[in-house]
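Researcher: Re-running this chain for the archive, since the previous output was lost when a drive failed. Same request as before.
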Amino acid sequence: MAVPMIKSTYSLDLDTVRKVERLAARWKVSKSEVLRRAVAVAAKEEAPADLTPLEALRKLQDHLKLTPQQAREWEAEVRRERRAPVRNREWLRR
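Model: Regenerated structure tokens:
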């Protein structure tokens, strides 16, 4: 049985086109197959829409595999940045 295909047109920047072409050559598949695989991977990694913001945060934290010590260090760094005088904030100097 044939797999139904839909022909579509998309506009991609030159850099993306080059990447797709390199992947197609490396994997020895069509550019369409490269895009199908990329979409399949992206769809798997997408967070389920039914997660609450807190559940999504917990899932992200679990994925990062932060130790309690790393989390405390990050928290301390954020506190120092927030308490620093405004003139010392790097993003203001840009």
